[in-house]
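User: I'm putting together notes for a lab meeting next week and I want to include a structural view of one of the chains we've been expressing. I don't have a solved structure, so I'd like a prediction I can at least talk through. The sequence is below, exactly as it appears in our construct file.
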Amino acid sequence: MTGIFSGILTAMITPFNENGVNLEEFGKMLEYQIDGGTDAVVILGTTGEPATMSEDEKERVIRYAVKKAGGRLKIIVGTGSNDAKKAVANSVRAEQLGADGVLAVTPYYNKCTQKGLYEYYKAICESVNIPVIAYNVPSRTAVNILPETAEKIAALPNMAGIKEASGNMAQVCETMRRIRGKMDLFSGEDFLNLPMLAIGGAGLISVTSNIAPALVKKMYELVKANKLDEANELQDFLLPLEDACFLEVNPIPIKAAYNMLGFDAGVPRAPLTELEEHNKEILSNAIKNAGLKR
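Assistant: Thanks for the context. Below is the predicted structure for the 294-residue chain, given as structure tokens.
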């Protein structure tokens, strides 16, 4: 399945306050994404801190996002788990609540085999009618979707793509060769956005686009228009900002960045901590140098 999602898919944070999820502020962030030209948002993915959220909080976030978006951008919900049954249940709930698609990270901690990965995605795809995107991030999960496995899962009827965050461009190129025309490739590493688009990637599932949606969208459009010199120039401009957005583990810096732009993003939930003071200055300078303002 190809061509379902494309462009900029922002991996959204979840703003918290003392009462739980700050839905009012989340709505302002969604409007900021729409104004910046974002095509879709991924909610309750890694950047959204779902591991520290209750099931009730997750459901309220999905309901709110679907209603607030009102069809102006697509809503993709993170539903993966180290328990296949839970991943299926999460995906079914997302579909029932009106999501346009789901993003399912590989099962973490359990360290399943490549056969286990296929069975995991097969179970999710068979449980829903909406598109499914696999998420390969071995640095977090200790499981790597190998190119031959990506090719196999691409044959599943509603498998719409793979978010690649392995950081291994040789592997990404081989995966792209095997899945081309069968399912889409999405960059899951902001540093590699341009090369992943250049080999045929359909879009970017970006963290940096939380605070710079228009700039990230412009880079995407330049690549798709074959204006690679301009795209490289813009990527060079964006790189210091992207570096600053990953000074500490995601989503610590990007939450701080939202606060610097005047949003009330709150702070990450434990065991994550606030951005270190010396890194706040680096991030603040990167935001200023990028000309970002709300």
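A couple of points you could mention at the meeting. The chain has one domain: 7-225. The CA atoms of residues 212 and 292 lie 7 Å apart.

User: Perfect, that's what I needed.
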